[in-house]
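During the reporting period the student researcher (J.K.) took over the structure-prediction task from the postdoctoral fellow and processed the backlog of single-chain submissions. One of the processed entries is reproduced below for the supervisory committee.
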Amino acid sequence: MRVLVFGATGRTGSLVVERALEVGHIVTAFTRNPAAVQRDHDHLQTASGDVLDAAAVLRAVEGQDAVISVYGVRFDPLHKITIFSAGTRNIVQSMEHHGVQRYVGVTSGGTSEASQPGSGLVFEWVFK
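J.K. obtained the following structure tokens:
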């Protein structure tokens, strides 16, 4: 299976890429910095771009069988974070365009026992 991984050079993304290669998938690591891909493997290739660049995402999704999204940014209380909604919109639209139907999205939101900056009471007391 041809698998595209967004966030492939992060801690979680690196593990996803490694595991996908171990089980025999052909993996494309989507990253802003292809030199950051620290793994060399016959079934590993890179796609350079930013998840906010719809054209780059569209090119990367072409020919894939599945997409795994593990990209993220650090919390910044001074700026509104829109990368998750905008990036996921680009990914989903590209998948629809190319007919790719398998998507896995991973987040660590809500995994800390500590109160999360910017979260409300419902998130802290109900979801967590």
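The committee noted the following: The CA atoms of residues 3 and 27 lie 5 Å apart.
J.K. will present the remaining backlog at the next meeting.
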